[in-house]
Description:
Layout: H1 2-22, H2 28-35, H3 39-84, H4 88-105, H5 116-128
Helix pairs in contact: 1-3, 2-3, 3-4
Amino acid sequence: xxxxxxxKTELRRLRVAELMLARPGISIRxxxxxxxxxxxxxxxxxxxxxxxxxxxxxxxxESRAAEDLRxxxxxxxxxxxxxVAGKGWAxxxxxxxxxxxxKVLGLxxxxxxxxxxxxLASYLSRLxxxxxxxxx
Length: 136
């Protein structure tokens, strides 16, 4: 008996998903009316379907990001001899690829603001004392 109920649930959720795709923005009440179930059941079905769609989008995004990172690493490897040779265009392309890589990894969102005046003053004071002045 447990299998029959699961099958009915699966069929109902499939119908809810079809309606959500066919009529974006359909209300939960309209879903319940179309499928012939309670508003709570329609709400739960819609939430489960949205969660499944979100998981699929996330997995697709991660696989695409991994592929982009692999291609970016290959491009950097191919470009590296030109960078070492001092070709200006290659250095520019390397910077663009590294910036893109940081964006894909989500690293560009972390911004650190430094007061260049304080950094320079610290460097000059350490230099005046005779010591090395590592960057803070």
